[in-house]
Amino acid sequence: MKFYSTNNPAHRVGLAEAVIKGLAPDQGLYMPTEIPVLSKGLLDRFPEMTFREIGYEAIGALFSTALSQDQIKELVDHTLTFDAPVVKVEEDVYSLELFHGPTLAFKDFGARFCSKLMSMLVEKSDRKVRVLVATSGDTGSAVANGFLGVDGVEVIILFPKGKVSELQEKQFTTLGQNITALEVDGVFDDCQKMVKEAFLDAELNKKLLLTSANSINVARWIPQCLYYFYAFSRLPQHGKKVAFAVPSGNFGNIAAGILAQRMGLPIDQFVAATNVNKVVPDYLNGADFQAMSSIATISNSMDVGNPSNFPRLLALYGNDEKVLKENVKGYFYSDEQTETAMQAVKKSGYTLDPHGAVGYLGLTAFMAENAGYQGVFLETAHPGKFRETVEKTLGLKLELPERLAAFMEGEKKVECMGNGFEGLKGYLEKLP
Question: 143: domain CATH number?
Answer without folding.
Answer: 3.40.50.1100
